[in-house]
Amino acid sequence: MNEFYQKDIISIKDFDKEQLETVFSYTDKILQLDPIQRREICKGKTLGYLFYEPSTRTRLSFDSAMASIGGNSLGISDVSSSSTQKGESLSDTVKIMSIYSDVLVLRHTLDGSSRFAAEVSEKPVINAGSGTEEHPTQAIQDLYTIKKEKGKIDGLKIGIVGDLKYGRTVYSLLYGLGNYDVDVRLISPESLRIRSDSTYEIKKRLDFSESTKIEEHIDDVDVLYVTRIQKERFPDEEEYLKVKGSYVVGLDLLNQMKDDCIILHPLPRIDEISTDVDKTKNAKYFEQAEYGKHTRAALLGLTLNEIAF
Length: 309
Ligand code: NCD
Description:
The protein is of the alpha/beta class. The chain folds into two domains: 136 residues, Aspartate/ornithine carbamoyltransferase (Rossmann fold), CATH 3.40.50.1370; 154 residues, 3-Layer(aba) Sandwich (Rossmann fold). 38% of the residues lie in helices and 14% in strands. The protein has a five-stranded parallel beta sheet, with helices on one face. Strands 2-1-3-4 form a four-stranded parallel beta sheet, with helices on both faces. Strand 5, helix 7 and strand 6 form a beta-alpha-beta unit. Helix 1 crosses helix 11, helix 3 packs across helix 11 and helix 6 crosses helix 7. The radius of gyration is 19 Å and the shape is globular. The N and C termini lie close together (11 Å). The model has no long low-confidence stretch (mean pLDDT 96). It binds N-carbamoyl-L-aspartate. The site of N-carbamoyl-L-aspartate has 10 residues, from helix 3 and helix 7. N-carbamoyl-L-aspartate binds next to helix 3 and helix 7.
């Protein structure tokens, strides 16, 4: 039996290296199938999504992943048009969605929301972003992108820059990278360093250094993972304005990078990567978004098939 069958995907911490590599090899396998074979994987299965926060890529990539493996999706992408507005609890909404679908994809503003949903849902729950805590499927997509574009993960120097305090993709990526032998450089404004309540957990898993200056690392890293300052998560707008625009990766910085350094970003981008970087060979964030469709198709296929495809 496939070990992912009917399992929730709540935290990347629940994946060891072997399990990550299994997901990557199923993603490779999916990419080799022709569209007809691919549509057999989840034929007749339904994905239900509940998004309590805005999303473009995550929701659409789940949708398009599910369609590409023969399933369909339904759900609520704007809770203001759902019974949540009438006061329905998350617990009831999740229970109802789990009646109408085979797997549930949840994005919510609160840390712990997906774990809670998994407890009340009859069907497996996939965390598509829980507060500032985690975004495990994004980390799988990020790790897969690194592996495809650099040919390996072990041995790389990885710079992560931007909002390390509120950016949930950063936490999932760091926990995931903890399975590999990597040298991580965290670069952020002083006020946006990774949260002290998570440093212990991250230190247990990997070595990292912290800095406020991107120039200190720019000529040395193999991967530069850029993140957006998470404006909506600041308790105080004044604090946001102090750090807004702290780092902008433009052609000037790009010229100082290793020739084969890749630039990643979970997107959406605001102003932290200038658009003239997009056409360079180093920019891989649009490829990263595309890999997200295939890694999610693999995860859905594994979650919904007792015998892996
Ligand atoms: C990220 C998120 O929602 O955390 N977006 C995404 O899923 N690709 C990153 C962000 O919003 O900055």
